[in-house]
Amino acid sequence: MIGLFIATLTQALTLIPLALGINLSYTILRATDMTIDGSFVLGAGVFAQLVSLGVSPYLAFLAAMLAGALAGAFTAFLQHKGKVDALLAGILSSFILYSVNMAIMGRPNINLLNSPSLFSTAFAQNNLMGWSAVCALVLILALGFYALLQSRLGLYLRAFGDNPKLLARQGLNIETLRTLGFGLNNLLAAASGAITAQIIGYADINMGVGMTLVGIGAIILGQHLILPCIKTHYLRTRTELLSAFIGIAIYFFILNGLLRFNINPIYLKLMLGVLLALFLRAATQKAKLS
Amino acid sequence: MITTLLTFKDIHLNYPALERPILQKINYSVQAGDFVIVLGANGSGKSSLLKLIDGRYQPSQGQILLEHKNIHRLSAKNRAHHIHTLTQSAQDNLFLNLTLFENYQLLARNPKERKKKGLEAEIIFLKEYLKDFNPNLCDKLSMLVGRLSGGEQQALALALAVLDPPAILLLDEHTSALDPKTAAHLMALTANIIAQKKITALLTTHNTQHALNYGTRILALREGEILDCIEGKAKKELDHASLLERCY
């Protein structure tokens, strides 16, 4: 049982930035941004390729996040200039990113087992130190994200998600906000991709498939469990971050639980898909009731 | 001294799909402190006139001057600073999925002075300020605005609009989605605040009683043209029946 918990926590840890990014797009910007499927791989691919070329892992990690932000900015550009709706723009970006990722990586899979990573020194000492380093990086990203959401810019992003027309009437440039919002959520997804690649030891062209859906399902589950306990919206940002963490942890707990029951891996996605559909249905029912 | 605040100079507004112009040959001036009631049948161009003033529409011909500046040459931010619009739909006036306090942070003008005093002082100030508009709002600062009643939402929208009064307040049938009692209360409150703070305002409505009771001037539109302008002694002598006859 302890092994199950440890596996759950370590896997959830690497995907927390992704969950925060999806929380930004789905809950705050109120858009389903499918770009994340592609930018998760983009982050992993840019990091893996740069590190294998001898670039410092720190620089490679920054470059991975920047690449993710650019992918998000491209999705915002498609919405603004191409007049494509948010969902389709995300699907289109993700589609294009498959080729971009292949071009960057040069092959479908890059092995990182013998390459340096942000955490290799810490893991060389022992596992506890290694995971503490991962935890510290995720915490820095989460705190930065929290600080942003608590700022005036965070309020503008929420207002953009709620009523962009009214915000535009206040004289704000909503396209800048759109670009910032989509850039930031994909930056976080790319950071997650780069962290995951370092933990699992490789970057794979297909590692992002279904990530958006997993993230949305997880944060809906988390919100479902946490929000009824919250009486005031002053604490909304903290609640959202906690929901993202709890949701993603429960998803991996279920995933690992299924694997331990020797479920045939062929049916794993089918079972998880049904589970996510149930979460989404529960959330819709609850929204109707409220 | 009477100051002309808003001037319509030969305004025309066309929609490509329509044969008849939405507005045509509009020449009119609004003085500072005027409360102009715009009357007219559906489709007469009342709302379009307000949308031209707040920049949502561009005139096909002519100019609208705010003092001496062309409104459509002002930056969106500058225009928003001078002009505030309230419509009948709460969706147009407020951020429904944000809290009341967040709406205050986003929609109130010149918040810097109040902000300097700190968050707690700001909350105390806001609670006290909202009392005059709707006492129920005072304890709901952390509530999502979408959960307020229609009357509370419109009272809040009005309160935020006039906290630091804009040069021009545009009211596009802002009470028409409310029940008669709430609508009458909000209208009286609006007129009171406008008079108290000496705000220049334009109100579109179908309620001729409001026009008689509250407006300083009446502007009647028919098929996009000015049908009648009633002010001063002529307005005072008007009764309900003659107003209906002159304006519809």
Write down how many β-strands of chain A occur, each being a DSSP E stretch of 2 or more residues.
Answer: 2
- Cα-to-Cα separation, first versus last residue of chain A: 37 Å
Order of strands, widest sheet of chain B: 6-7-8-3-9-10
How does the overall form of chain A come out from the CA principal axes? Answer: globular
Compute the gyration radius of chain A: what is it?
Answer: 19 Å
- Class from secondary-structure proportions of chain A: mainly alpha
Compact overview of the structure:
With 290 residues, chain A is mainly alpha-helical. Chain A has twelve helices and two strands. Chain A has one domain.
Q: Which short descriptors sum up this protein?
A:
heterodimer; A: 290 residues; mainly alpha; two-stranded antiparallel sheet; B: 248 residues; 11 helices; 24% strand; globular
What does this protein structure show overall?
Chain A has 290 residues and is mostly helical. Chain A has one domain. Helices cover 78% and strands 2% of the residues of chain A. Chain A is built from 12 helices and 2 strands. Chain A has a two-stranded antiparallel sheet with strand order 1-2. In chain A, α1 packs across α11 (236-260) and α3 (57-80) packs antiparallel against α9. The relative contact order of chain A is 0.18. With 248 residues, chain B is of the alpha/beta class. Chain B is built from 11 helices and 10 strands. Chain B has helices at 46-53, 76-82, 90-93, 100-107, 112-116, 119-131, 150-161, 180-196, 208-214, 232-236, 240-247, and strands at 4-13, 23-31, 35-39, 61-66, 69-70, 83-87, 168-172, 200-204, 217-222, 225-231. Chain A binds chain B through residues 152, 155-156, 158-159, 161-163, 165-172, 232-234, and chain B through 54, 56, 75-81, 85, 91-99, 102, 105-107, 142-144.
